[in-house]
Specification:
245 residues; alpha+beta; 2 domains; two-stranded antiparallel sheet; 6 strands; globular
């Protein structure tokens, strides 16, 4: 698992972020990055990464751009599916739900390929690019519906991640405090970058940090995994087992 995550991380840095490459990446030209891996309670690994962009605008400049109807910021991530609503996609993608939990599902269907277990298809020659891009959108929506829809409600119907979130029909600036409110058309998913979803084939989300408080909170959250002194019980026993082997 560690080797696979390391490989995926290197592929992300090389082909999505385009770190130390002559051309720009999905998020433009990166200036710096910082990432750390979190080991969750059920032994799965989760990567958090912060990205600094060369020539990025200040919050004041961003607000001015948004007020002038510039949609450049919306190109960094989306808060909806690409080809339809969640309900529409549920009718298009084969699904048989197993009643073990709201997020457990058995995906099946004649000729259907589980996209979380397959590799992404590279873009073709320019003459076939439009057809590939349509398939790209369908693939991203399939993966989002399968991996990103929050339905983790407790017995009282409350979601631990505070979903559903508010729907925002278009990007706007709060006139009271200047806060940028990003466009978001689906209430049950976080904002994502389609290219990252397409290449990673798993749950990912992307957030544009524009306020100092949000940046400080995120940096503190990521750095916390490097400074934790206590180990969980399963980690202690695993370490003892390796030491005695």
């Amino acid at each position: 698992m560690c080797s696979l995550l390391s490989l995926l991380g290197q592929l992300f840095l090389t082909h999505i972020l385009c770190w130390d490459q002559p051309h720009k990446g999905v998020f433009s030209r990166p200036k710096a990055y910082y990432g750390t891996v979190e080991q969750q309670g059920w032994m799965t690994l989760h990567l958090h990464i912060l990205i600094w962009i060369q020539g990025s605008l200040s919050p004041k400049e961003i607000r001015e751009r948004l007020m002038s109807d510039d949609t450049y910021l919306e190109g960094s991530h989306i808060g909806e599916f690409l080809t339809g609503t969640k309900d529409k996609l549920r009718t298009m993608i084969p699904r048989e739900t197993i009643d073990k939990g709201s997020s457990d599902a058995d995906w099946s269907g004649a000729g259907y390929i589980n996209l979380t277990l397959s590799m992404p298809i590279a873009p073709p020659q320019i003459s076939k690019l439009y057809a590939w891009h349509h398939q790209f959108q369908l693939t991203v929506d399939d993966l989002l519906l399968k991996s990103n829809v929050h339905s983790c409600q407790d017995k009282n119907g409350r979601c631990s991640a505070r979903f559903p979130k508010s729907i925002v029909p278009y990007t706007m600036v709060d006139p009271m405090d200047g806060h940028v409110i990003m466009k978001k058309l689906e209430s049950s998913i976080n904002t994502v970058t389609p290219a990252v979803t397409y290449t990673n084939r798993c749950n990912t989300d992307t957030t544009s940090l524009q306020l100092g408080t949000g940046i400080k909170a995120t940096v503190g959250y990521v750095c916390d995994y490097l400074t934790k002194a206590s180990l969980k019980t399963h980690q202690i026993f695993s370490t003892i087992k390796l030491g005695c082997a």
